[in-house]
Design brief:
The chain is built from no helices and 20 strands. The chain is mainly beta and 209 residues long. The chain folds into 2 domains: 120 residues, 7 Propeller (Methylamine Dehydrogenase, Chain H), CATH 2.130.10; 79 residues, Thrombin, subunit H. The strands form 5 sheets. Strands 1-2-3-4 form a 4-stranded antiparallel sheet, with no helix packed on it. 38% of the residues are buried.
């Protein structure tokens, strides 16, 4: 299952094992649209920063892009060969990143639907992705590592190592200077520019997500 608010907070997208996405009016609770046409359940949903687009990742290799207002399907992104776990829009909404069990991250043009980059180098499934606030960097988490990529060129810039378990989540600070990664009962803080490890936050009773 997955849920996501639109940036203005007026819409909520929800997805479940019934192979459908529903768009809800948050203030009234009314169901506005049902997006159908899936053969598998939906793993993730995300609105673009301007709220005009909705992306969805399926429990297979497919990513779809929708007009959030009309519910019309705009693009179907095909290229992964295994389950897509998570998706993320760049801050300007021009790129959509998708992370898969096939150990890759793909970058798509949200206007043309073209595949722009395939980021390879992880040794296991990619569990989390995040763009920096300026859109120049993309962080991806897999196995016990985090990789930092140039979002424009697709070049791998840094591999951040230090976790002892699978990394479940990544997030940039609002100013883009720090990157946090969560795993194995710890959170690590990194310098996003140099890749240097700054702090390890512990004392969690279970895995951090």
């Amino acid at each position: 299952m997955a849920v996501a608010f639109s940036p203005d907070g007026k819409l909520l997208a929800s997805a479940s094992g019934d192979k459908k996405i529903k768009l809800w009016d948050v203030s009234s609770g009314a169901a506005l649209k049902t997006l159908e046409g899936y053969s598998r359940s939906v793993n993730a949903v995300a609105f673009s920063p301007d709220g005009k687009l909705l992306a969805s990742a399926l429990d297979d290799e497919i990513v779809k892009l929708w007009d959030a207002s009309s519910g019309v399907a705009l693009h179907t992104f095909e290229g992964h060969w295994s389950m897509v776990y998570t998706i993320a829009f760049s801050p300007d909404g021009k790129l959509l990143a998708s992370a898969s069990r096939d150990k890759t991250v793909k970058l798509w043009d949200t206007v043309s639907g073209a595949l722009l980059q395939t980021l390879e180098g992880h040794s296991s499934w990619v569990s989390a992705i995040a763009f920096s606030p300026d859109g120049k960097l993309l962080a991806s988490a897999s196995d016990e590592t985090v990789k930092l990529w140039d979002a424009g060129s697709g070049v791998a810039l840094q591999t951040l190592e230090g976790h002892s378990g699978h990394v479940n989540a990544v997030a940039f600070s609002p100013d883009g200077k720090l990157l946090a990664s969560a795993s194995d009962e710890t959170v690590k803080l990194w310098d996003a520019s140099s890749g240097a490890a700054l702090q390890t936050l512990e004392d969690n009773s279970d895995s951090v997500t």
